[in-house]
Design goal:
Blueprint lengths: L12 H7 L2 E7 L6 E4 L5 E4 L4 E2 L9 E9 L3 E17 L10 E2 L5 E2 L10 E2 L4 E9 L2 E8 L2 E6 L2 E19 L15 H12 L24
Antiparallel strand pairs: 1-13, 2-3, 4-5, 5-11, 6-13, 7-8, 9-12, 10-11, 12-13
């Protein structure tokens, strides 16, 4: 996995629509894949295949799915946001386990969090844009999707499950000329190797074959005999 620069941006669907955006992916989660595990204290939390724990100290332990997308090289990424297409409610099991504190190598406890609880629903959004990066002449963008949200009601805690969703791309301005390195010399087999790597990495592999990327020119060996 390449290292991406974090750049969290939270726009509402109305704001993103006004700014212009396009659907680049549709996905789904199967509620039959929802399972429960217990932490050392016996408190339970939901898990789904293909996700990781949110692990925010003191906040509900929920699953997260990280997705990587191949997006146009010549345009800056303004935002990626998750549009819920279908959701339903699931009962929670006596409240949810909370994320444990983190510890440094020296044993110092860290309880700071990146997310915060805002109101009765956590997380308050279904996902967030987490960064963009150029890799070997391909622009990648990432988004974290929250397939399960905790809802606090007068009757207790419920879960809101994301059955189907769309990922929308909001583009920024054009990339300034000369700011991206372009392959000058053709390296045999490089394009095919890149395509194989991307096919395993991105959630939209169908765009790889038509992606606009300079593969370089053949350089003849002009050395004297």
């Amino acid at each position: 996995m390449v290292c991406l620069v974090a750049a969290s941006v939270a726009l509402s669907p109305a704001q993103a629509t006004a700014a212009g955006n396009q659907v680049i992916h549709e996905g789904e989660f199967n509620p039959r894949d929802l399972r429960w595990e217990a932490d050392p204290q016996g408190a339970v939390y939901p898990i789904l295949d293909g996700t990781r724990p949110l692990a925010e100290p003191g906040l509900p332990q929920l699953p997260v799915q990280d997705l990587v997308f191949l997006v146009p090289l010549e345009i800056e990424v303004g935002n990626l946001w998750i549009e819920p297409l279908e959701t339903h409610r699931e009962p929670a099991k006596n409240g949810l386990a909370l994320g444990a504190p983190h510890f440094t190598d020296s044993g110092e406890m860290i309880t700071t969090t990146r997310l915060t609880r805002q109101g009765e629903v956590f997380p308050s959004f279904w996902g967030e844009f987490t960064g963009s990066h150029v890799w070997r002449g391909y622009r990648l963008a990432t988004v974290s999707v929250y397939p399960v949200r905790e809802i606090q009601t007068a009757q207790g805690v419920e879960l809101e499950f994301l059955d189907r969703f769309a990922v929308r791309l909001e583009t920024g301005g054009p990339v300034e000329a000369g700011t991206i390195a372009v392959r000058q010399r053709l390296i045999p087999g490089e394009a095919q190797e890149n395509a194989r790597t991307l096919a395993e990495l991105v959630a939209n592999p169908e765009v790889i074959s038509g992606y606009r990327r300079e593969h370089g020119q053949v350089v003849q060996n002009m050395s004297a005999a």
